[in-house]
Amino acid sequence: MALEERPRSCLLRFRHKLEEDIKPSYLMDHMISDGVMTVDEEEKIRSQPTRKEQAVALLELLLRKDNRAYISFYNALVKETYDDLANLLHDDLPYVLPDAHKSSSDGYTPYVQAMLSEGGVPQRPVVFVSRPELVNRVREKLYRLQKDPGWVTVFGMAGSGKSILAAEAVRHQGLIEECFPGGIHWLSIGQLDKPDLLVKIQSLCFRLEQSLDSQSLHRPPNSLDEAKERLRFLMLRRYPRALLILDDIWDSTVLKTFDIHCRILLTTRNRSLTDSVSGAKYEVEVESGLDENKALEILALYTDTKLHGLPEEARSIVRECKGSPLVVSLIGALLKEKPNRWRYYLSQLQQKQFKRIRKSSSYDYDALDQAMAASIEVLPEDHQELYKDFTVLEQDIKVPAKVLSVLWDLEPEEVEDILEEFVNKSLLFVDSHNKPYLYYLHDLQLDFLVEQNRTQLESLHTKVVHQYQQHYRDGPPISGDEECLYWIRFLTYHMAKANLCQELYSLMFSLDWVSIKSKIMGPAHLINDYVEYGPILDKENSEVRSQFQEFLSLNGHQLEQRPFPDVVQLALSQPHTSEVYRQALLQAQDRASRGKLYFDWLNKNSVESLSRLVIHPHQGSIYSACFSHDGTKIASCGASRTLKVFKSTSGEKLTEIQAHDDEVLCCAFSPDDRLLATCSSDRKVKVNSCKPAKMFCSVLFCSVLHLFEASSANEWKTISVRDVFAEGDEEVLVKCSTWTADGKRIICAARNAALVFDVETSGMLLEIRTNRLSMVQFCHACPTSNLLAIAYSNYAVELWDLEANKKMADCSGHLSWVQRVQFSPDGSQLLSCSDDQTVRLWETTKVHTSSAVCLKRDSDVLFNDEEIIVSAADNCNRLQVRDGRTGSVLFQSEEKSSRIRCTCMCRQASAVVLGQEDGTVQVLEVPSGKLLATLPGHTKTVLHCKFSQNGQTLITSSEDTTIRVWRWQSGECQVLQGHKEQVRCFSLLSSSPADTRLLSWSFDGTVKMWDTESGEKLQDIRAHRGAILSCHVSPDGCLFATTSADMTAKLWHSESWECVHAFKGHQDCVRSCRFSWDSRRLATGDDNGEIRLWNVKDGSLLKICSREGKDGMDSLHGGWVTDLHFSPDDSLLVSTGGYIKWWDVEKGEALQTFYPTGTALKRIHVSSDFSTFVTIDSIGILYILQRVA
């Protein structure tokens, strides 16, 4: 039969919208199940290359199909929650399908009522809610029995409402008249033995015969065989177009009694029952739960309450039982009699006290636990034992057959057969959208098993662990498939439940396990394990547990990177006293003996941090983050347009919402933590809720603070902030305000200051200012102490004590503007969020001031045997000379009035030079600090300085475009003039004292050669169209290389100054270059993080390093490649950028990566044997790295 005109027109009318939105693969599964589409047709549609082309093909097929296909397509849309699309098709549904959105009682006429009563069909329950989608699906299947006999099976787990659904499906006059004019006959079966079954059939036969004339009455059949024949005769001859409904069938042998070539609708928990009978077969699966609104409607009807008047416990009951019609109805009936017991019945459900939830209806079992037990008791004994093992699963967890194959020690094929039996009996559910299939229990089934096997829980979990250990004796699975994911995620859970404490210690105090689980699952799951099982682990060693947890918390954002970092290398940055470090060092030493590279951070003990957790929740800037009021959750939002909620203990993501159409600027929890409000650049505010307070303060990006009475919304007073700043035309914007815990002070952020005002007098009590280059972005007062947190645009977060007017700590770690800070409700933690895409948590109870001292990146290093001496300016603009190994300060100058921009130590004398922004050059004696020389002459910032080999000569270059060659002890100076722009660096052409030639390069694109003795310019070429960013002379002195912002590198002959090769291919500024020690290779690095290795002889490209694995900042090296060094044998290359990488020169492959706390490394100093590496990051942390031998 062809598709009717109305539905055909509807499909054509809305064809474009359907093609744009539907995912055909989801819908076709349902249509194949309904029998309106063949597998071949599905394959043909799936072969289309794009989703849209598949949608076009599906609609073309539908237009060639009949009404049943249209109905099935409609039901599939409803099933897959395409409600808007289903509504478009709804009004043109063919006649065979009643209106799916009105009560199915539309066809329930007196004729139908009489017909069903005569056939023994149960009446509707007193409390009834319609399930139109399911009813329509059953009716659609029943229409298929119009011409020929067959079976329609309605199956589902206990209490899913199968019987009510079957009865409701036949309450329709059109269905009865067209398909079953001979009547509808209901027979309740249940778990019967043969005599009872015989009685049932005798009763049915008597009823059928009684409806005929009195001569048709026969004696009752005496056996099942006779009964079967009598029923066959009646159904075929006397009632040829009648429907027989068999309710609650358990046994296939019972069903065979009714295999009499008639029309049968049956309800069962066992999907496979009809495999034993002949004829056409159709199925309808009944979901285990109602949607929340339907379930609440049942409770409202039972308790005679409006939906909106139901208590909060109503939703909790529905969620606890996942909308089980049986449970909701049982509890509803109990509440009808005892309406004040909402909380009691909820607690009984939560505590799995199923015996207390007893029937008040015509259901076959006295209590919920009996209904559950009945399904299990029909299994063979060995399968009952296997089913018991599901007790160990966590709620809502799906497992593949392979996991159960390990648990049961059976072949996977045998396990799949057993699981299919459980699924067919509605004892288990299968997610067939996954390959391989995943299996899971309904919450009620799992709760029942836990209650039934409570005394055996420990032994059941022990069995799981022992079976795992036996199967994976050679090491844990690392394949990343569903089986691997289950074991990696839940092994610790099973160990804890089995009380296998020693096994749990060994596993969780293992760096190998940390590496495997964090790679497969991510760090948040691991941190959760240490939090959840902390009480067990602390019995063994609380300090070790704390060390592992801290390692993961502070390195979690690194462990989420791909390619996955080397966990052993990360762990080598842990304190020397840490068990994490001890295990990492042992592994590093073992692997180093086999040629692997590892580097130990020697001076890490001199670095302190308040940070306790680093989270990378978004791609893009994070504009706002906040604690929930109970402190357990953190919400964040930003440029990614999403809102995310995660655990404050571990960073595990709980929720992600595509919140707005533009960047999300702010988020906040409601007082009960149930709601989240967000506001966005799209001019929308979503989900707003607030709690009244005594007063509130309004800041509308103006120069005035407005204080209001909350009760009346009247302005109470204003405080002018503009008056605090010097007079000027520039507007003063107040960015935020915060109240102190006592409510007596209010603090606001404006320009580069945080201002504290007395609320009563409006007088300013305190002004906290930062330098002129940084702005205060946000401030927040601690709710439990006198601490104030301030966020700055210079990436810093500071903690101040308002009573003492003293900075307590610098929270260093962010790599871009810090947008917001907030204390936890108990004041023990502080969160900060930044444009660097991270949220950081800090422990305020461990405040200290030592972290306030950090170094600038312009530095010099001396390697003398085992001694490592470092000179660099600190953040207070003092020059420091430190022992690199211990971190101790050997010398510290007084604070300079002009910023120190470069430094160099003399290799011969105990002297150090510093160059300043005002052009001053000073030479100081170390360690006395005595001023040996002040060398005036430069008129702008001194950018680079270097002593000669003998220490008698000092060379400096400056933004003033000159180079000066000093006889620093006498003050004599040779000025090298000729560059037109700043000279950032220079290089002597050789290390020989007799060679006085100097190479200089500049942003003006030129390279020049000078004689340092005479000051004569020997050579001058315009090497590049853009600024020259680096230059290096080959070790043999024959060549030099230049790199430029014009994205090229060039090779020049030192004598002829001819361009030997021009290297092209970089896609960004070429920032650095370095010759190999044999002068045969040249390495170049660019601002996209790419490193290229070139053949010096013929100019060919040998390798491109870093091409794989861009990080989240869209760079191949975490930033610009700023420095490069070859090992003495030219087999290795080290590079700096956002982090430090070591490379295999021949293969161009990364061998190791060191991730500093900060980023933007400017330079790395390398010892002559390539064993020690020194650098300083953007937040001033010094790194002395030594290769592990």
TrEMBL record:
Where does the CARD domain start and stop, copy by copy? Answer: 3-92
List the Pfam families hit by this protein, alphabetically.
APAF1_C (PF17908), CARD (PF00619), NB-ARC (PF00931), WD40 (PF00400), WHD_APAF1 (PF21296)
One GO term under biological process is: regulation of apoptotic process
Q: Which PROSITE patterns match?
A: CARD, WD_REPEATS_1, WD_REPEATS_2, WD_REPEATS_REGION
Q: Which InterPro entries match?
A: Apaf-1 (IPR017251), APAF1_C (IPR041452), Apaf_helical (IPR042197), CARD (IPR001315), DEATH-like_dom_sf (IPR011029), NB-ARC (IPR002182), P-loop_NTPase (IPR027417), WD40/YVTN_repeat-like_dom_sf (IPR015943)
What's in the GO CC field?
apoptosome
Organism superkingdom: Eukaryota
Which of UniProt's keywords are assigned here? Apoptosis, Repeat, WD repeat
Q: Give me the WD repeat coordinates as residue ranges.
A: 657-687, 811-843, 935-976, 976-1020, 1021-1062, 1063-1104
| GO molecular function terms noted in the UniProt entry | ADP binding
Establish whether keyword Transferase is in the entry.
no
PANTHER family, A to Z: APOPTOTIC PROTEASE-ACTIVATING FACTOR 1
Protein name listed in UniProt: Apoptotic peptidase activating factor 1
The lineage is: Eukaryota, Metazoa, Chordata, Craniata, Vertebrata
